[in-house]
Amino acid sequence: MARIIAGIATSHVPAIGAAVDHGKTREPYWKPLFEGVEPARRWFREARPDVCIIVYNDHASAFSFKSIPTFALGTAPEFPPADEGYGPRPVPVVRGHDELAWHLAESIILDEFDLTLVNEMPVDHGLTVPLSVAFGQPDAWPCRVIPLCVNVIQYPPPTGNRCFNLGKAIRRAVESYPEDLKVAVFGTGGMSHQLQGERAGLINSEFDRAFMDRLVSAPGELTGTPHVEYMREAGSEGIELVMWLAMRGALAGTINEVYRFYHVPVSNTAYGLMVLEDGGSRG
Questions:
Q1: What domain range is 37 assigned to?
Q2: pLDDT, tens digit, for every residue of 208-227?
Q3: 50 FRET partner, CA 20 to 30 A, in 2, 93, 98, 115?
């Protein structure tokens, strides 16, 4: 059967993609970040997941205010990089795993968890930057990818508890798939940042580090965090952290924290990265 081998938490700051695309990763500003990313890349080279389920949010590339799904699952065989106003990123087309995606759709929906199914969808930096963090600049992404888009743009977004339970439904779905596949689940976005208003540029490192600690040892304590607390402590875009809870919900209760990295600043945000091996997948 398929099994989840790890969860990956990573910010998806668009400037990271631009630094990769324009050859700036060794410049003084960017070098500390990409040196901090390298241990995670080594883990991916060794672990070699067959499929990555990436929980991310769209930034008005695939969806607009005309249609805002709370949870949208990409079921296509491939997903082109989106044009976010300056042309598509020069990255490989994202290859889907439509058979597993349709299995996820059936299992999760019959598990009484509503999804919007999307058969054609461009993917923006919310998904492609995490792939660049994990794999660098390959000619083709080394794994299949299933996008799972979460609305954290237009109020009301889903609660952390709802995202955590979505992760549990993902785990049940993966473990009921008969093919022997190694699956990694990404939770993306965050950490503390605000892009507009009087608090533009806000970074709360104390909140970020405490969130990372509890994500490992006490995720249940995070599931009840109200939206207003994310906004107050981590800025208006800090609500993206609920997507990390979807990843954590997909893991077993016992995990092995392989790697953690935190860096400030990345553009005008705080960057966080975690690799959490699933304790139930060993052997």
A1: 3-278
A2: 999 999 999 999 999 999 99
A3: 115
Structural domain includes residue 230: yes
Residue type, 28: P
Lookup result for tokens 């070699």: 48
Instruction: Write down the pTM of the prediction.
Output: 0.97
State yes or no: cis peptide before 265, omega within 30 of 0: yes
Q: What is the pLDDT of residues 31-80, one digit of tens each?
A: 999 999 999 999 999 999 999 999 999 999 999 989 999 999 999 999 99
β-strand pairing of 71-74 with 269-278: unpaired
> How do 269-278 and 3-10 pair as beta strands?
antiparallel
In the chain, the DSSP E strands lie at 3-10, 51-56, 71-74, 78-79, 94-95, 116-118, 144-150, 182-188, 255-266, 269-278
Asked if the structure places residue 283 within a domain, the reply is no
CB atoms within 10 A of CB 120: 11
Residue 56: Cβ within 10 Å count: 27
Q: Domain holding 42: CATH number?
A: 3.40.830.10
Q: Indicate the DSSP class of residue 64.
A: -
Distance between CA atoms of 276 and 7, rounded to whole angstroms?
5
- The count of residues in the chain is 283
Cβ atoms of 130 and 186 closer than 8 Å: yes
Domain-located, residue 56 = yes
Contacts of 22 (CB under 8 A, 6+ apart): none
Give the residue numbers annotated as catalytic, written as ranges: 125, 193
- Which own/partner pairs from 252-258 qualify as long-range (CB within 8 Å, at least 24 positions apart)? 252/278, 252/279, 252/280, 252/281, 253/279, 254/279, 254/280, 255/7, 255/216, 255/279, 257/216, 258/6, 258/43
Residue with tokens 């249609």: 67
